[in-house]
Amino acid sequence: MLQVDSINVYYGDVQVLYNVSLQVGCQEIVALLGSNGAGKTTTLKTITGLLKKQTGNISLQGKTLEKMPAYQMVSHGIAMVPEGRKLFPNMTVRENLMIGAFHPEAFARAKESMAWILDMFPRVNERLNQLAGTLSGGEQQMVAISRALMSRPRLLLLDEPSLGLAPNLVEQIFDTIQELNIKQGLTVLVVEQNAQMALQIAHRAYVLENGEIVLSDNADQLLNSEKVREAYLGL
Ligand code: ATP
């Protein structure tokens, strides 16, 4: 579904991504792992058009995403859950969710989308009229995922969904991602520092180190390799 071919990305004169290539197949969960500053967020932002690549190509279902502004990505079936949730704190949960359905096609299905999303996240349902800024971290992450789902994406990009959450909540969030993949056929690219957790739900994974993909394999293979666990996954 998503094909990233040899992208090079700079912040000013400083190169941060070096020939990064990755693929995400239809209905796959793919994890992009790596330590702080490896370039994971930069990769996601480049896919969504928030950052420009110097060279390389990115395509979705065979169609190149070249020169497409970030706001149009959503109409091509891509939604992103950003690091740190980035909710609108002074708006209610319901209003935050509706922002996810700003695209006309998603807006037309907003009622139906809201119903299945709230069924999946009863906690969000309970908090619909609460200001998003007053939610707990875990609740905010659920709202951030719900908001992305309101656009009815085919490909969901998640940036560090486990960040700052208690272990039981992390598990809950990852269970939900897996459920979305199995039951709704959602394709997922998840960026994580919590490699152990991500590899438990991912089919495949890539490891980024200093802006380069240094490893890619099936999640099971990565989890079971002693060398890989020590050298790249900090396990
Ligand atoms: P983390 O897990 O800490 O978020 P990451 O793997 O997502 O790390 P990036 O945020 O993609 O890493 O950052 C990759 C590199 O690019 C880092 O060295 C970072 O300092 C640098 N960088 C990120 N954003 C900018 C920016 N706006 N201007 C300049 N350099 C940046």
Short précis:
The protein has 235 residues and is of the alpha/beta class. It contains eleven helices and ten strands. α3 runs parallel beside α7 (137-149).
Keywords:
235 residues; Rossmann fold; 6-stranded mixed beta sheet; 4-stranded antiparallel beta sheet; globular; binds adenosine-5'-triphosphate
Question: What is the topology, as strand order, of the major beta sheet?
Answer: 6-7-8-3-9-10
The CA-CA distance between the termini, in Å, is 30 Å
Q: Which regions are unreliable across 5 or more consecutive residues at pLDDT < 50?
A: none
The CATH homologous superfamily of the domain at 1-70 and 186-234 corresponds to P-loop containing nucleotide triphosphate hydrolases
Mean pLDDT: 90
What is the CATH architecture descriptor of the domain at 1-70 and 186-234? 3-Layer(aba) Sandwich
> Which structural class is indicated by helix and strand composition?
alpha/beta
Give the count of helical stretches. Answer: 11
CATH class descriptor name of the domain at 1-70 and 186-234: Alpha Beta
CATH topology of the domain at 1-70 and 186-234: Rossmann fold
InterPro entries: AAA+_ATPase (IPR003593), ABC_branched_ATPase_LivF/BraG (IPR030660), ABC_transporter-like_ATP-bd (IPR003439), ABC_transporter-like_CS (IPR017871), BCAA_Transport_ATP-bd_LivF (IPR052156), P-loop_NTPase (IPR027417)
GO molecular function, one term: branched-chain amino acid transmembrane transporter activity
Organism: Desulfotruncus arcticus DSM 17038
Domain ABC transporter: 2-235
